[in-house]
Prior knowledge:
The protein has helices at 14-23, 31-38, 42-52, 64-71, 75-98, 131-142, 146-153, 159-163, 178-192, and strands at 2-7, 28-30, 104-108, 123-128, 168-171. It is α/β, with parallel strands linked by helices.
Amino acid sequence: MLKIGITGGIGSGKSTVCAIFQILGIPVFNADIEARKLYDEPQVKEAIILAFGDIMYPQGVFDKKAMADLVFQSTDKLKQLNELLHPLVQIQFDTWLQQQVSPYAIKEAALLIEAGSYQQLDALMLVTCPMNKRIERVMKRDRVTEDEVLARINKQLSEEDKRVLCQYEIINDDRQLLIPQVLQLHHQLMRVAGQE
Length: 196
């Protein structure tokens, strides 16, 4: 089974692209969602409180915004959080992958390249989108300011840097249709997997 990574900057439309692949019957592992589930695990909670303080769990519940505010202001804090979570997410992905029956499976993650986990995949796909659209989407979705979105964007590799490591690209600019691009890539990947 081929392991394909989908990455792209915040607000680029990775989840929309993955939803189309899922409609085509391709299993998708969303690393960011799986990482969020870990915050409630007792050992992870303990490690986060030790590293970042109990302010991250007011009333015992994880405060996503407090963590985002902290890590997107400090490269060291972001690195510390990634070092804590990424190995655990990789274990979850490996376990999930063994349960899949498909010519290829997809791992979706914003920080696939930054975390280094792309090295265990067969190929990478980049979802790109104009910066102004990304900012607009994230402001609306997360109810944050433009400055907060830019702080997050500045902690990620640029599209240009990611493109160097990616074999495929989907352009999500509201001008080029997504479905035909995904269908074309799906057929390519099926051929590579020996299914067409």
